[in-house]
Amino acid sequence: ATGSSIMPQKKNPDVSELVRGKTGRVFGNLITVLTIMKSLPLSYNRDMQEDKRPLFDSADTLKACIEIYIKMLPKLTIKREVMLRAANTGFLNATEIADYLVNKGMAFRKAHESAGKVVSYALSKQKEINELTLPELKSFSSLISEDIFDILTVQQMINRRKSFGGTSVENVTNAIKDAKKRLAESNALLEKFSFSSSLKKGG
Q1: How far apart are CA 85 and CA 52, in angstroms?
Q2: How far apart are CA 8 and CA 11, in angstroms?
Q3: In the chain, how many domains are there?
Q4: Residue 91 carries which DSSP code?
Q5: What angle do CA 164, 156, 89 make, to 5 degrees?
Q6: Domain match, 6 and 66 both
Q7: Cβ of 122: how many Cβ atoms within 10 Å?
Q8: Residue 83: inside a domain, yes or no?
Q9: What is the pLDDT of residues 24-52, one digit of tens each?
Q10: How far apart are the C-alpha atoms of 62 and 152, rounded to whole Å?
């Protein structure tokens, strides 16, 4: 990380920022290749030679990003307490109130309006939503009861998202297992390819 040009207390995660920026380059190469390959009249055409530059550039870019991430990640320190404290601020749970009211039978438009009023009230009191009392919350809707506090923490919000691609611990754990499985399969394929190549060279 490097310091900011204007804010002395700020640290810029240079590696992550630069790698994120590289995604634009790779996506641009993808659009280039898709455009070249679109609506081919038959099979190979001479204009397909234009796909080599974006292909090789993407491979080189990906390789460079992986190499630098391999060096960065072991030195990364995750401050869980700081992250949790930050996640509990900023009214991320406002949508939970709207969903809660909808599940209680309120129309979404009205639920959205009520959630917005809760946020405005919390701001005026310099509180987070989960710091409000039950009487304060009930003043915005008679549908609100004690069980609303079961959905307002970060952990509860995360674990409620159980649909495919959701953020629940179970979903993320399964996604990690799947990623490790695919990585192992890719490594096995690479080893097989490398072994075959060495045999050919030896022959």
Answers
A1: 48
A2: 8
A3: 3
A4: S
A5: 110
A6: yes
A7: 19
A8: no
A9: 999 999 999 999 888 877 777 788 888 99
A10: 40
C-alpha dist (Å) from residue 12 to 6, 8, 108, 110, 187: 12, 11, 40, 42, 33
Residue 3, phi then psi, degrees to nearest 5? -80, 165
Cβ proximity of 168 and 161 under 8 Å: yes
d(CA 96, CA 125) in angstroms, rounded, equals 20
- Put residue 4 in one of left, alpha, beta given phi > 0 → left and psi -120 to 50 → alpha: beta
Domain that holds residue 26: 2-76
Q: Is residue 183 part of a domain?
A: yes
pTM of the complete model beyond 0.85: no
Of residues 138 and 48, the one with the higher pLDDT is 138
pLDDT in tens, 167-176: 899 999 999 9
Look up residue 149 and give its two tokens. 């506090």
d(CA 36, CA 143): 57
| CATH code, domain carrying 116 | 1.10.40.30
**Strand 11-12 vs strand 2-3: parallel, antiparallel, or unpaired?**
antiparallel
Is residue 196 scored above 60 in pLDDT?
A: no
Terminal alpha carbon distance of the chain? 49
Amino acid at 2: T
Cα–Cα dist 23/20, whole Å: 6
Percent of the chain with pLDDT over 70: 95
Region 51-68: what's the mean pLDDT? 93
